[in-house]
Structures
1.
Amino acid sequence: MTYVRDLVRQVVVQEAPHEVPVLDSLRGFDDDQALRVLNRTGQKQEPLGFGYAEAAAVVTPVVWMVLDQVVRHAVDRASDTVLTRGREWARRLLRRNTTEANRVMVVLDPGQLATVRTHVLDRAKERGMPGAAAEALADSVVARIAISQGRPQDSTGRPVPPHPPTPPADQPAHQPPEHPGQSGAAS
């Protein structure tokens, strides 16, 4: 199980280590509170204890907001039944604790990963990140998600679609490989 905040930290450490103090300052908050703080940065009303470093952060809010949006969308799709909606309503009514408020990253298929890449790229450019840096950030986010899901990657860090293994050159494709200790004749 991978938390969204853990993926955000991995990307920030790799792509924008100067923003790690921003993440550290959000450690005591649950995901909803952290997102509210990140959404407010850059506005004239800054919350007490947050200042220029948070306002200058680009990677942290972009990555966290996109991944949060992906998880929320997946949960919304999964909660289409009346029973599930009733449970969600009861959970909100009873107020969950902060450990439950940290979102778990969902498993994404290659199409969803492409959508995440597009969203990160768009949000990064909206926040003024240069094109090449935005591309690198988007690739890094997708690579981190793929790694957390145990998917293979190509040399660019992008997930590789699954394909059947090719048979060894010395064996025909239609015969299963022989294992040591087995003979061709049945006993």
Note: Residues 42-55, 96-100, 162-166 have pLDDT under 50 and may be disordered.
2.
Amino acid sequence: MSRSFATAFALLAVMAVSPGLAQPADFPIVAADGSAFPAGVRVKKAGELSVYTDAHGDVLYGMDMRTVLRWAPDPAKFCGDACKHDWKPLLAPASAPVNIRYPAGFDKAAADDTFVDPRKAPDWTVIQGVDGPQWVYKGWHLVFTRRDGNRASTALDGSDDRTWNTLKYIPAVPKIAAPAAVSTAFVAGAYAFTDRDGRVLFTGKCGDGCQWQPLAAPMASSGLGDWRVGLNGDEPEWTLKGRRVFVADGAEPQAVPPEGKILRP
């Protein structure tokens, strides 16, 4: 891997965003790809988010190999000695083929089809760890559980300068039949319809003097699936199953009025 590539990831590793909304603590959460979990791996609720656990209910943490790159030439072998005293690797079956490596192989990934490029990895791959074949999540997160203390706790999320992060689960993005103006986002524990700018769509009874903003529609559209074009006065707007569709205020793209109900796929 080139020095410039390593430097780029080291810089990324110190960038922070809102707590609780990232996977790991300073990188965006990526939705699951829908592939099967390793044997024993489950999902449980942890506040507004969900996290992966092992068969015993111990929370899975990812050691972010992008952050330990600052201290280890081969991050897959970083957790030894004192680290192993606190963290237990989530080992893959001994017979599982190792199909990802880090950092070696970036420049050879295109020519070597026996290893997955971490930048394009599926949810679960296997790397050669300190104690043998070990699970990796999303190409970057070497998977561990705590050896002692409250092993079901998420309290160590972001610890050791964002090296350790709970593996947060977001379901695969749903496929929708909707107008081009409509997308989806993960909001309050489930997917919601949004406009193209990420503002949540909602419905409800808009009484006299209502200031809610309808989702504008083209006059010539014939609709798509449950989506139809209606008229409120002279202005065309989208409806969903006969209900008017409104757009959250731009200043708070995920907030809807108390009388409103978020529209979900």
Note: The first helix runs from residue 3 to 12.
